[in-house]
Amino acid sequence: MGAMEAGTLAPDFSLPATDGKTYSLAAARKEGMVLAAFFKASCPICQYTFPFVERLFRSTGTKGIQTWGISQDDARESKAFARDYGLTFPILMDQKGYPVSNQFGLTNVPTIFLIDETGEVVVSSVGFSKQDLLDIASRIAEHTGGKKAEIFNPGEDVPEYKPG
Questions:
Q1: Is residue 113 within 8 Å of 10, Cβ to Cβ?
Q2: Alpha-carbon dihedral angle through residues 21, 84, 125, 93, given to the nearest 10 degrees
Q3: Which of 34, 50, 126, 129 is most deeply buried (CB count within 10 A of its CB)?
Q4: Partners of 121 in the β-ladder
Q5: 2 confidence band (pLDDT: 50, 70, 90)
Q6: pTM of the full predicted structure?
Q7: Alpha-carbon distance 10 to 104, whole Å?
């Protein structure tokens, strides 16, 4: 079984974050969509992908969408990853044994889910997928009524896919 597929209901969860707060999917969904991006600091494809997730976050802001990095590392490693890759969105920490990662069926990182207000997974993306990130940007713009995020810079050499 692979990662939870689009069209399925995401399980509710609450996780502590590096900012000292606890974040709840159920509470966040009341305010809009959630982009949940799972990673491990030592993963080279995560290191490649997350600056693009940051661009998406900076372009869309927080109106109608919350972006979370969900780390499979401890607080020290998670904070270092966020600092090293310039991440400004909340970094949540999955607990020992990775219960939330397991609920979402993760087999690889990075894995990114776009979840709507009803809890439905709208996009499920494993590894780095340029098309999936563009799809996420389109769906967020459609949802918020905003402009589609510019994730990739003109002339930037970005592959279509890198497996996680």
A1: yes
A2: -30
A3: 50
A4: 115
A5: low
A6: 0.97
A7: 7
